[in-house]
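protien #1 (seq + structre)
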Amino acid sequence: MLFRSEVRRLNAELEHRVRERTAALELANQNLSALHAELEQRVEDRTRELREAQAALLTSARQAGMAEIATNVLHNVGNVLNSLNVAVGMASRRLRQSRLPGLGKSVGLLDEHALELPRFLSEDPRGRLLPDYLRRLDDSLQQEHTEMQVELGHMARSIDHLKDIVATQQSYAGAPHMVAPTSVQAMVDDALRMNADLQSSPHIDVEQDIAPLPDLPLDRHRTLQVLVNLISNAKQALEAPEAAGKLLRIRAWRQQEGALWLSVEDQGDGIAPENLAKIFAHGFTTREHGHGFGLHSCALAARAMGGELLAHSEGPGRGATFTLVLPMPSEEAA
């Protein structure tokens, strides 16, 4: 009897412990379920926050890209507008100095003596001088006309370049490049003209070393954009107090009929070694009033053409060389 009583007691105690353990496990399971639900909610909230942050970053990146393109467009447009402003100023000065009013005075003299024109031309001192004056006036007006045609041609090319600057931005959205046979020499001449105040600067001697080249298949607008910017930067470097000399040299050549190399060398204030690695970064500049858009824009244009833009300098006060390397189609390189 004692043994059975002990067994019953032990069974009761075991059942009690099992009930307690079961209750504890059920409570732990409830807590785990609640914790799991809380974690799921947190993960859901965090995922939503990350998606919202990603959308915001995409929007910011898109806006930054649009702003960068707009900045590059405005920078390049500004270079061309400067050359247009100089060309318009030269044309206005020629018009102010024109000898055209002399023609009106001559016609007035002829009208005044219309009834006695033979006597006026043969006997009057003013009349005897008039035919020779009209011949010289004709030569002068013909020269003015030729010069104005040249200036208008320059303005027309600058305006075309402005239109190309705007139109070419479509390429960033997938439009094809505008490649056409291009004279390298003519393109270099245009780039120098678009830096119109370069020729009149007493601080700069310009030298060209352009190899005889056939017309090459180039994206003329982008290549011209790079040249204009590089020449403008070289001009600034040569006008700096730390400039080593006055020479700006533009070179163009092909290596074994392969890639086209275009370089702009200057004896300006040079580039520190620590700046060479970041010279093409957006917004980076060492100029007091610089914005850091030009070289970045040039690097983008070079990559868009499948080429590269290289920078070299021996250091401050030792000048710099920027070289645009453009691959030619395989059939052209053959």
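ok now protien #2
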Amino acid sequence: SASLLAAAQNMDPTLHALGVHLLTRLVDDKPAVRRTALQSLEAWAKASRLPLSAGVLSAVRMRCRDTSSAIRKQAAKTLNGLLAIEPESPSVRSTWLAGVLPLLRDSELTVSEAALDAVHDHVLLPLARCAGAPAKGFESVSWALLERLTPESEPLLQHGVSALAKLKRLPSALAATAQAMLTPAADDATGDASPAAAGDVAGAAASGRAALWAVVLELAKQPQAGAA
């Protein structure tokens, strides 16, 4: 398994062949091999900068339901890494949401902690960093993820926010930024930002606002939450 990671980091010239090889290792009988394959796949994606195919993303998402908690934890970390590599990819965003959010309620603490780290890094922290200019929050990966949330997945995000609040890991400016993004003026900003395909944009924006309201409502339950 160490050779897989070394090959991915050193970038064998046959990039496609290496990617296919790693996919076969994701279903290996040995958990150690599956874990290393996940790590290697992230290294491969980072070094190659090749677009992540639906097959690759599906394979990683499947590992989020692995019988081994170590593999589920690594799958969450790998998806977090892949989103950092391709934050503009709709398919990567969708896979991240579908794979990571359910792990927030995983019975294994180390797995749920990895999922919490992912939510903190890609949803909450980018929003908080827009505190000085809340309108920029609509340009962040956070908003892109929130727009893809459904009424069924919103409770998972709320659970994550609540868990991070109890751990005193909520970014200090999150509440103010989220509330500012929900003002009428902020709504106007979203419309001005993407005039094309108005119907689709309006629908996505409505989903994003609903998800953001879910975050705000959860924050309201945690007035004593500490900052991170």
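Confidence is low (pLDDT under 50) at residues 192-200.
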